[in-house]
Design goal:
Elements: E1 2-8, H1 16-32, E2 36-42, H2 47-56, H3 61-72, E3 75-83, E4 86-87, H4 89-96, E5 107-114, H5 122-133, E6 137-138, E7 143-146, H6 153-172, H7 181-184, H8 191-197
Parallel strand pairs: 1-2, 1-3, 3-5, 5-6, 5-7
Antiparallel strand pairs: 3-4
Length: 198
């Protein structure tokens, strides 16, 4: 079964960011024609845990579960609102606390929402470089939705094109082996050996 993690950084309830994320995930499920498990991670309730993680270096509770969901995912759908011509701080913080290499080779569909189409380039000058840095595989079509786009047919065609590209990546890609927390502690180095190497 294909496992997709959907990350939504919307702050309002209801949220246009979450609405776009739901439409993208539904289109990907339709495009895959196989059993799909979709887990949605709303970042708004994780804000305090993310700040704590930045200060302590440790994730706990729901944040630890969210990170584990990303670790198990075959692909990500990520959507952020646009603030100050870039992704939101909450969105960036979530990806800041992920361990290095966690997204290497993972297919990612990127999306963003804003009040005006003037912000649409955020996908190319902010989101795509972020996920390239994280060594993810970003699909060619990114989806931006301004407020007025939600009633337009053009948005759905962009959603379907991006979903088809993600589905194609998933259909042709061998599944990566997921490293779990148990794997990390399976063969620990003795503390004495660490001290000898220092």
């Amino acid at each position: 079964m294909t496992h997709i993690a959907v990350i939504s950084a919307g702050l309002s309830v209801p949220s246009s960011t979450r609405l776009l994320a739901d439409r993208l995930s539904a289109a990907v499920v339709d495009a895959l024609h196989e059993p799909v498990e979709v887990d949605v991670i709303e970042l708004r309730p994780l804000a305090h845990a993310l700040a704590d993680n930045l200060l302590t270096g440790f994730a706990s509770g729901e944040l630890a579960e969210a990170i584990e969901t990303v670790r198990r995912a075959d692909a990500l759908i990520v959507v952020t609102p646009v603030f100050s011509a870039s992704y939101s701080g909450l969105f960036k913080t979530f990806f800041d606390v992920l361990e290095l290499g966690l997204l290497t080779g993972v297919p990612v569909l990127i999306g963003a929402t804003a009040g005006s189409a003037r912000h649409s380039l955020v996908l190319e000058h902010a989101l795509r470089p972020l996920f390239s840095y994280l060594h993810a595989t970003v699909v060619p079509t990114a989806v931006f939705a301004a407020s007025e786009d939600f009633g337009e047919a053009g948005l759905q065609s962009r959603i379907e094109r991006a979903a088809g590209e993600l589905a194609a990546l998933l259909s042709g890609a061998p599944r990566r082996r997921v490293r779990t927390v148990e794997d990390e502690f399976a063969d620990p180095t003795a503390f004495e050996d660490l001290l000898r190497g220092a």
